[in-house]
Amino acid sequence: MIKEFRDFIARGNVMDMAVGIIIGAAFTAIVTSLVADLINPIIGVVTGGIDFSNLFVNLGEGEFASLSAARDAGAPVFAYGAFITAVINFLIIAFVVFLLVKAVNKVKDAATKKEEAAAAPAGPSELDVLMEIRDALRK
């Protein structure tokens, strides 16, 4: 059983997945900073200074100036601004991953075409053979 487990871990797919998870965690930190430090301020300027991450509805007693103050006081809050921020983060991450996958697929396709061209026999093409058959049938 230990040998099977070692073989499983040594497979390329598992190692690729581990590397992907580590890179993904680091990438998440970058995207979170991108959204919090660059995108949200721009959205705030466009929407008149609204900071989405601080939008909330107090479901309990008392008045609180910020979401963090309400949470520190232990008040129940409906933090819809944090949800909006999470949706923006997700959309940006999904778009960037889409662009990365598209770029990787383009590179893979180019490499595959190059390998196919190198491996293709130097003989006549399929079209050439069909033209020869056509000409032979005409005779």
Automatic annotation (TrEMBL):
Transmembrane segments: 12-36, 77-101
Subcellular localization: Cell inner membrane; Cell membrane
Keyword Protease recorded: no
Keywords annotated in UniProt: Cell inner membrane, Cell membrane, Ion channel, Ion transport, Membrane, Transmembrane, Transmembrane helix, Transport
InterPro entries linked: Mechanosensitive_channel_CS (IPR019823), MS_channel (IPR001185), MSC/AndL (IPR037673), MscL_channel (IPR036019)
Keyword Transmembrane: yes
Main location: membrane
Subunit field text: Homopentamer.
Family: Belongs to the MscL family.
PANTHER family xrefs: LARGE-CONDUCTANCE MECHANOSENSITIVE CHANNEL, MECHANOSENSITIVE CHANNEL MSCL
Function: Channel that opens in response to stretch forces in the membrane lipid bilayer. May participate in the regulation of osmotic pressure changes within the cell.
Descriptive protein name: Large-conductance mechanosensitive channel
Organism of derivation: Albidovulum sediminis
Lineage: Bacteria, Pseudomonadati, Pseudomonadota, Alphaproteobacteria, Rhodobacterales
Gene this chain is encoded by: mscL
